[in-house]
Write a structure and sequence with these properties.
By secondary structure, the chain is mainly alpha-helical. The protein is built from 2 helices and 2 strands. The two termini are 37 Å apart. The protein binds zinc ion.
């Protein structure tokens, strides 16, 4: 296991150690902590978009099911019900697509 020199006390510290066993100095380093914070922020932002993408996907599938069900009812005794289901299905499906696409675009915009 490679050893690092503690910047504070000069003692040998394993690279796997989270802190110096001699003086207790955290060994993750300032750079890593800043990087960790940045990653957390990105993940938080991404979660918001993930919610939108998830919601959009769910709406897309729900709308798809409604559309297909509506199509099945078309030209049957429940023709008017079929048309209503079809319209609602298409609207829900389109909303899901738009929500998902907007979230994807925003996520792309925010994360470059
Ligand atoms: Zn130390």
């Amino acid at each position: 296991m490679p050893l690092l020199k503690c910047p504070d006390c000069g003692g040998a510290v394993s690279t796997a150690a989270e802190s110096c066993p001699h003086c207790g100095r955290p060994m993750t380093g300032t750079q890593d902590i800043v990087g960790g914070r940045r990653v957390q922020t990105v993940e938080k932002t991404a979660k918001k978009f993930k919610g939108w993408i998830l919601g959009g996907t769910l709406a897309f599938f729900a709308g798809g099911i409604l559309t297909v069900t509506g199509l099945c009812y078309m030209n049957t005794d429940s023709d008017s019900l079929g048309r209503k289901l079809l319209v609602v299905g298409v609207v829900v499906l389109a909303s899901g697509l738009i929500a998902g696409a907007v979230a994807q675009a925003l996520a792309w915009w925010h994360h470059g």
